[in-house]
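During the reporting period the student researcher (J.K.) took over the structure-prediction task from the postdoctoral fellow and processed the backlog of single-chain submissions. One of the processed entries is reproduced below for the supervisory committee.
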Amino acid sequence: MLKRRNSPPRATPGPNVGSPPRKPERIADPGIAAPRIAGPDASAPRSVAIPQPPPREGGKFLWPVKGKIVLGFGPKAGGLHNDGINIAADRGTPVRAAENGVVVYIGNQLRGFGNLLLIKHSGGWMTAYAHADTLLVRRGQTVRRGEAVARVGSTGSVTQPQLHFEVRKGTRAVDPTRLLAPQAAAG
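J.K. obtained the following structure tokens:
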């Protein structure tokens, strides 16, 4: 998601652009729809124990979805910055976990991201997947590299189907294109 570098920081976890993690922002707008979550535990309680992530399987992360990058990482016009990449794909296309990990967040309370999930990986890595139409996993779930975790959508601040994808090492956003295996390896 794009944000102004010199704007006041907003309270958001993980995928906040260029800032250390903060407390989640609470949005009081009753018009915000809950994320569509497939599966039997869509109404599971929020207090879920988060296990340690399993070891990483590969040296490079997998592409979460095949497609063209429509917005790259880094500074943009007007003082904006993108901490990830936006990949165009057809609505409903499966979004795959870029690496083995544990789902630590699912929801849509972070303004602009729409339906979002965060996966924690071993070694201090985190990946973020935003603008999903449907989330296929639950908080606390262990996922395997290449497993479908969501479906591409256009929720949040975008109007065309796409995936916003971020890779973080600790609190620092890293250009995902430097860490991704060749796109042909995506499933």
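The committee noted the following: The longest strand covers residues 125-135.
J.K. will present the remaining backlog at the next meeting.
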